Amino acid sequence: MSDDPQFTIARAIRLYNRIDELPRLNEGLEALGADLGWPGRSVMNLMLACEELVVNIVHYAYPEGGEHVIEVDVRATSDSVEISVSDGGVPFNPLETDNDPLSLLDMDLEERPIGGLGIFFVQKIMDDVQYEHAGGMNRVRMIKRF
Amino acid sequence: MNIQATEQDGITIIPLEGRLDGGNATVAETAFLQLLSEGKQRFLFDFGNLQYISSAGLRVILVAAKKLRASKGRMVCASLTEQVYDVFEMSGFTTILDIVSTKEEALEKLQAEA
């Protein structure tokens, strides 16, 4: 890893809105982690945060179907990483969920709804998560400080 | 993921390997539902070789737990690796599911209740 605290590595991972693109997302993050010397667990956490967002986009952003691009932009410095995940699908803020994810945690097996955890993981893993809709694009920006 | 379930003393062992994510969760769910429809009621989910799970993978585990609770079956999760355990804990799964550290412990548990 560079001694220069100002260094920045920027990398774009472009995916199609298909679930079989997940391996490419993971390979991209693994390669970046190897270049920067990130611990394996940190890479897995970033994979999890990105997967949850990308899977949501694949399933819900393009109800009319068709092939579209999901842009995963990673900017890493020596002590932080910022990832933005963008799509041009239907405007949707994943951070505005109907149910309070924390209320799920104490539920019994029988009453617990299936699903609803993905965005909760993103918020739990990353230090800062923000959503914006601009220029016809949904964009979730998230930051992790090491 | 190619799931090769095995049988031991009436217990169905499902080995999970690699990743259980949005890309293959439905494969695992289908495999479980098939075994359930064959009348299997006692399951050991072996997580020893699973390195990574996401919410799509957790969904499969929750579906299995709910189905087995409804049919008065039983399941135990064994040998969770670090990332998998952390994700279970974040989700509150460690309090609603039966989790043990080794496969042997899981077998003993399932046999004791036969």
TrEMBL record, chain A:
Residues 19-144 form the Histidine kinase/HSP90-like ATPase domain. It holds the Pfam family HATPase_c_2. Keywords: ATP-binding, Kinase, Nucleotide-binding, Serine/threonine-protein kinase, Transferase. One of its GO terms (molecular function) is protein serine/threonine kinase activity. This is ATP-binding protein. It comes from Paenibacillus soyae.
UniProtKB/TrEMBL annotation, chain B:
PROSITE patterns: STAS. It comes from the Bacteria. Residues 1-110 form the STAS domain. The lineage of its organism: Bacteria, Bacillati, Bacillota, Bacilli, Bacillales. Pfam families: STAS. InterPro entries: Anti-sigma_ant, STAS_dom, STAS_dom_sf. Belongs to the anti-sigma-factor antagonist family. Coiled coil: none annotated. One of its GO terms (molecular function) is anti-sigma factor antagonist activity. This is Anti-sigma factor antagonist.
